[in-house]
């Protein structure tokens, strides 16, 4: 019988040759297993916390030193008697040489590959010793770079391009340089006679939604004569009638089951249906009926297509995901590794992250190519769609033979590991490597046929030959050459094809966020805006150093890795806000700015989802949902899982029903000659979106306020929101705004509030549109606002109301943090809002808002 025993106890580590980490020959017990060196040194108080102050730079020697881990484990007589005994390493980071009882059994050189070494011949009864010696990946990488040549990249040290290791370890524009080292995944002793090397469950769900399931089994030996029993079970553990016993021929077997539509429950991403899970249970026995191995594989069934077809009214092709014949607007996030120290991540932390995603009304997450193929637990609990990159990012990667061999193995293993997860709907070859190639002019898009390995863009071989053939061979998931990628022969910035990274807000041409509508693409898989995290997170990294508590301080500069971040933050602030510059205010203003920027992207792009044949934009994935350490970045939730206000603003835009507005000025000249004679009218447009599959009758109510008088105007109308699309609801002059004939005529400060109400008066969606830029607004005196922030009697929510419109409310409370249900709130008279406040415990809430007297 095949038995796997995880070796989790009695691990020790040492710095090879001794040094700042341990004395020569000093072995420290590890605090957890799997683990990596920094984590252990920190626990043993041999290094300062690299997440505080400038400490990142105090620990750089760790990644340039060599380390060893050792383990002694007992072997029983039964284990010793097994026909085969292997040591299985799920993940070693990265260059390791492994000795077992004094014999060299393995050399490794990729963090992304699992290794197996036969050890039967060295196994002893009683104590056995395993020693894993790791050499510095940084130094090894530099050697490889010297041998094979320096290549171009964005982010990190160029030697990373030669090393199959999480690329963000080398430092990124949101992450510190922390070169982890050690056994980062489980290590096990595997005893067996014959075992199942592969259980490949494929399901073909037809357009009519009948399901054909095939289960292909492969054994470690080409044995014949045994029996394989294959059972399909539902989540409730009931056996689905299915063929069960099959003969094993030459080490493999195949079972096939087919089901009529409706016989199996299909998997849907959250928001569209349930996520039923099934299991395939496999038992292999020899000809005498002795069980050799068993395996349980979780599976789900769904039909997924990446639809790229002509649009009825625009150029190019759609780029959209269809699940079980439903076309889905993907509103979601990009995901980076959730920690610089991966082995500190727990299933609970993963669960909490993915809960935040779902609670934020998001339905897709992109596992970005500069991190890791995530742990199984991530995909196991993921109820949203997953866009999965291969782990290459922002680089001119090589494709020499030894490198390619590692890539092939990595791709095969990870495709096999991930393919059964129903959430994964696309594999992309890399992150931005074609973009990097375009930027240095090394891509020849007219060439689709050459081998590429001898060109300046050798990795086209990987992205256009190796990876697609591996994906095709081992799974049924769609393959896309890169993120972003338009189409063969077309630059990655084409907005009418494929996916798009729209960085012309922040990076690139630094457009105003108000231009998101003209910056749209068919599927925007990256775009972003920075914002400071919660002040508690800032105070955490300042670690009590009050002298550094100002936005431009050295420590704050080290906790923002984006080049030009001060210029860019300030550009977007100064163009739009009259703002203050003390630490707390800077946190506030950058957060409101981030929320405005990102919410308007989702608002405008969801409007572009206009129904079948008019899916002008089919997805928006913000860069980025999370952080790997406490820092200021584009993240919408910080390292400590404190959501920034932008998270809530996005979540409002991704509700089932939303209402959106734009206000645009139209200047018409009296004739072709005069520049002085013109009229400026202000046009208001209102639309609604409906993320459900049925049409929705509702009432649109539009109320206009003048910030400086008691004038208001209201109109309402019955409307019908078309299913699964946006619907235009109104276009006309902005009420209360006179036509202007001179540039010196200052427009009135009209605030428009739109709400969608159902028959019972429940608010389905609301949105306020304010005159912009906000910096021109003369806000009323605080005493005239009639602003009330009232803590409820149970102390766990607050009611907000006002007599004047108020923009950009961010709530907080003195002391311990509170879990707010909403932030970056706009308030208008007559429409009070209740915000849940878990952990407020009856305290008074404090509110910041535009015009709160700080600037
Ligand atoms: C994108 C990403 C990352 C980067 C981000 C912000 O291009 O793919 O490489 O962190 O931009 O610059």
Automatic annotation (TrEMBL):
Alphabetical list of PANTHER family matching this protein: BETA-MANNOSIDASE
Span of domain Beta-mannosidase-like galactose-binding: 20-185
Domain of life: Eukaryota
Glycoside hydrolase family 2 immunoglobulin-like beta-sandwich domain span: 194-302
Alphabetic keyword roster: Glycosidase, Hydrolase
One MF term in the entry's GO annotations: beta-mannosidase activity
Pathway noted in the entry: Glycan metabolism; N-glycan degradation
GO biological process terms on file: carbohydrate metabolic process; glycoprotein catabolic process
Membrane-crossing segments per the record: none
One Pfam family this sequence matches: Glyco_hydro_2_N2
Catalytic activity field: Hydrolysis of terminal, non-reducing beta-D-mannose residues in beta-D-mannosides
InterPro entries, per the entry: Beta-gal/glucu_dom_sf, Beta-mannosidase-like_N2, Beta-mannosidase_GH2, Galactose-bd-like_sf, GH, Ig-like_fold, Ig-like_GH2, Mannosidase_ig
Sequence ranges assigned to domain Mannosidase Ig/CBM-like in this UniProt record: 683-775
Protein name: Beta-mannosidase B
Annotated EC: 3.2.1.25
Record family assignment: Belongs to the glycosyl hydrolase 2 family. Beta-mannosidase B subfamily.
EC class: hydrolase
């Amino acid at each position: 019988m095949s038995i796997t025993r995880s070796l989790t106890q009695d691990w020790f580590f040492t710095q090879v040759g001794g040094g700042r980490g341990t004395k020569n020959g000093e072995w420290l017990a590890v605090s957890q297993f799997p683990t990596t060196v920094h984590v252990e040194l920190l626990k043993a108080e041999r290094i300062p916390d690299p997440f505080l102050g400038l400490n990142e730079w105090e620990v750089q020697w760790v990644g340039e030193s060599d380390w060893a881990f050792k383990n002694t484990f007992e072997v029983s007589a039964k284990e010793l008697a097994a026909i085969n005994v292997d040591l299985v390493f799920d993940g070693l980071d990265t260059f390791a040489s492994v000795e077992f009882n004094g014999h060299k059994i393995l050399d490794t050189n990729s963090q992304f590959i699992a290794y197996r070494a036969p050890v039967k011949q060295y196994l002893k009864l009683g104590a056995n010793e395993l020693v894993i010696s790791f050499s510095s990946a940084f130094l090894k990488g530099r050697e490889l770079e010297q041998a094979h040549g320096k290549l171009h990249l964005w982010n990190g040290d160029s030697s990373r391009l030669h090393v199959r290791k999480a690329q963000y370890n080398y430092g990124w524009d949101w992450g510190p340089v922390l070169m982890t080292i050690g056994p980062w995944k489980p290590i096990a002793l595997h005893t067996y006679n014959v075992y199942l090397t592969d259980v490949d469950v494929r399901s073909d769900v037809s357009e009519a939604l009948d399901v054909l399931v095939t289960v292909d089994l492969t054994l470690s030996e080409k044995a014949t004569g045994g029996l394989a029993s294959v059972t399909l079970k539902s989540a409730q553990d009931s056996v689905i009638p299915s063929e069960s016993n099959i003969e094993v021929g030459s080490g493999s077997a195949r079972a096939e089951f087919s089901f009529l539509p409706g016989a199996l429950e299909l998997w849907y991403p959250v928001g569209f249906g349930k996520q039923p899970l099934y299991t395939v249970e496999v038992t292999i026995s020899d000809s005498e009926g002795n069980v050799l191995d068993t395996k349980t594989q979780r599976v789900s069934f769904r039909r997924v297509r990446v639809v790229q077809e002509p649009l009825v009214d625009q150029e190019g092709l759609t780029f959209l995901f269809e699940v079980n014949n439903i076309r889905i607007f993907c509103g979601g996030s990009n995901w980076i590794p959730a920690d610089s120290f991966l082995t500190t991540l727990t299933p609970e932390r993963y669960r909490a992250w993915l809960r935040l995603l779902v609670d934020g009304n998001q339905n897709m997450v992109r596992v970005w190519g500069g991190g890791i193929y995530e742990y199984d637990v991530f995909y196991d609990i993921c109820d949203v769609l997953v866009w999965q990159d291969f782990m290459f990012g922002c680089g001119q990667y090589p494709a020499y033979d030894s490198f390619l061999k590692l890539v092939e193995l990595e791709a095969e293993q990870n495709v096999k590991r991930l393919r059964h997860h129903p959430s994964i709907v696309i594999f992309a070859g890399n992150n931005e490597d074609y973009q990097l190639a375009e930027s240095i002019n090394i891509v020849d898009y007219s060439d689709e046929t050459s081998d590429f390995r001898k060109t300046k863009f050798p990795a086209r071989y990987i992205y256009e030959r190796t990876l697609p053939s591996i994906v095709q061979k081992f799974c049924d998931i769609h393959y896309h050459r890169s993120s972003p990628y338009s189409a063969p022969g077309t630059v990655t910035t084409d907005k009418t094809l494929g996916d798009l990274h729209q960085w012309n807000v922040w990076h690139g041409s630094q457009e105003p966020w108000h231009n998101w509508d003209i910056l749209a693409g068919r599927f925007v898989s990256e775009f972003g805006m920075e914002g400071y995290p919660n002040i508690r997170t800032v105070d955490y990294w300042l670690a009590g150093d009050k002298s550094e508590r100002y936005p431009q301080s050295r420590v704050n500069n080290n906790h923002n890795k984006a080049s030009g971040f001060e210029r860019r933050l300030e550009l977007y602030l100064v163009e739009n806000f009259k703002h203050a510059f003390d630490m707390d205010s800077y946190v506030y203003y950058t957060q409101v700015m981030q929320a405005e920027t990102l919410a308007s992207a989702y608002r405008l792009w969801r409007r572009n989802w206009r129904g079948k044949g008019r899916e002008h934009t089919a997805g928006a994935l913000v860069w980025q949902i999370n952080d790997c350490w406490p820092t200021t970045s584009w993240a919408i939730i910080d390292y400590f899982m404190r959501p920034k206000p932008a998270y809530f603003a996005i979540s409002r835009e991704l509700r089932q029903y939303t209402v959106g507005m734009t206000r645009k000025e139209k200047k018409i000249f009296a004739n072709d000659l005069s520049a002085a004679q013109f009229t400026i009218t202000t046009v208001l447009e209102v639309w609604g979106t409906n993320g459900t599959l049925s049409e929705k009758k509702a009432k649109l109510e539009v109320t206009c306020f003048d910030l400086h008088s008691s004038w208001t105007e209201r109109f309402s109308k019955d409307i019908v929101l078309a299913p699964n699309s946006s619907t235009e609801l109104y276009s006309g002059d902005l009420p209360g705004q006179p036509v202007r004939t001179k540039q010196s005529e200052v427009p009135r400060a009209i605030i428009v509030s739109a709400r969608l109400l159902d028959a019972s008066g429940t608010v389905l969606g609301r949105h306020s549109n304010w005159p912009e830029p906000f910096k021109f607004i003369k806000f009323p005196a605080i005493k005239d606002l009639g602003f009330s922030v009232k803590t409820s009697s149970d102390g766990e929510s607050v009611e907000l109301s006002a007599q004047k419109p108020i923009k950009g409310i961010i709530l907080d409370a003195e002391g311990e943090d509170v879990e707010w249900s909403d932030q970056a709130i706009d308030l208008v008279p007559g429409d009070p809002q209740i915000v849940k406040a878990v952990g407020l415990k009856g305290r008074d809430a404090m509110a910041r808002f535009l015009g709160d007297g700080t600037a």
